[in-house]
Write a sequence for this structure.
């Protein structure tokens, strides 16, 4: 095989797609010299007249909706030219290829793969002009500092989202039950009287629980943290993807890494500043 290179989709080269969000068991079809499979939730894609299906998880990770029904592939790919005829396994089935076709992967080391005819691939993709070889420190920054921060913010956003939704749900339920139980005369409903007995202690407990949970929401600021961490995560992820693809402010590959560090550290510093302000007693007294 020839040397694997880094490619991005050419500007404004979109696909038309619709999700098969239907109640069906799936189907199979013959394409690219092999049997392809599709299941409920997958996407039906029209790529310049070439129609095929793409798995839901892969599609959502690699495509961004630019207008209703129109999607742009935002994630770069790695591809090499096949030197001999053969077949390659894909997420949907098997694809035959000929010498000169492109074998396309979603990671530098391989990963999910598919084959594309030479003329079609070169019409859709252009090679990414790689920056100079990164030093060990620069590679550590990308693979440790940046990736770990993205994963950390993603995890914190997920945890705070769960806490917020759970506590908010309990608050609503407890608050709603107070007037309901207060207005029910259990003495007139035998089975309810046997089940609940005197509802006054229960009403008092629910009222107190509602107030406590609402106070916990304000104390731990789950909603604010959810939004803050999600925003920081997506901002870092956006800059990282733009740097990898070499678009927008990262087109100048000579300055790309330096610019990436400046932007990412600004985002991390801003999030840290918000955390200090939120947890600094002096700041709370001034406000």
């Amino acid at each position: 095989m020839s040397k694997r290179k880094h490619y991005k989709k050419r500007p404004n080269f979109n696909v038309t797609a619709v999700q098969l969000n239907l109640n069906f068991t799936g189907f199979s079809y013959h394409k690219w010299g092999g049997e392809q499979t599709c299941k409920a939730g997958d996407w039906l894609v029209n790529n310049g007249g070439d129609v095929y299906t793409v798995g839901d998880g892969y599609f959502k990770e690699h495509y961004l909706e630019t207008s209703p029904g129109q999607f742009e592939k935002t994630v770069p790919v790695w591809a090499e030219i096949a030197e001999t005829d053969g077949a390659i396994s894909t997420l949907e089935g098997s694809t035959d290829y000929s010498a000169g076709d492109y074998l396309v992967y979603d990671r530098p080391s391989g990963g999910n793969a598919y084959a594309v005819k030479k003329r079609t691939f070169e019409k859709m993709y252009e090679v990414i002009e790689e920056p100079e070889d990164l030093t060990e420190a620069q590679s550590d920054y990308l693979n440790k500092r940046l990736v770990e921060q993205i994963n950390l913010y993603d995890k914190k956003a997920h945890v705070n989202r769960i806490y917020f939704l759970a506590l908010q749900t309990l608050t609503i339920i407890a608050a709603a039950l107070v007037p309901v139980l207060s207005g029910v005369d259990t003495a007139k409903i035998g089975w309810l009287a046997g089940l609940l007995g005197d509802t006054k202690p229960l009403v008092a407990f629910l009222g107190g629980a509602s107030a406590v949970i609402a106070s916990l929401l304000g104390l731990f600021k789950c909603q604010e943290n959810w939004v803050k961490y999600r925003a920081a995560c997506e901002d870092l992820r956006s800059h990282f993807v733009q740097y990898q693809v070499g678009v927008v402010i990262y087109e100048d590959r000579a300055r790309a890494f330096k610019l990436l560090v400046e932007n990412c550290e600004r985002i991390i510093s801003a999030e840290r500043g918000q955390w200090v302000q939120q947890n600094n007693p002096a700041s709370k007294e001034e406000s």
User: Anything to note?
Assistant: Residues 178 and 204 are 8 Å apart (CA to CA). The chain has two domains: 5-127, 136-286. The mean pLDDT is 84. The chain has eight helices and 14 strands.
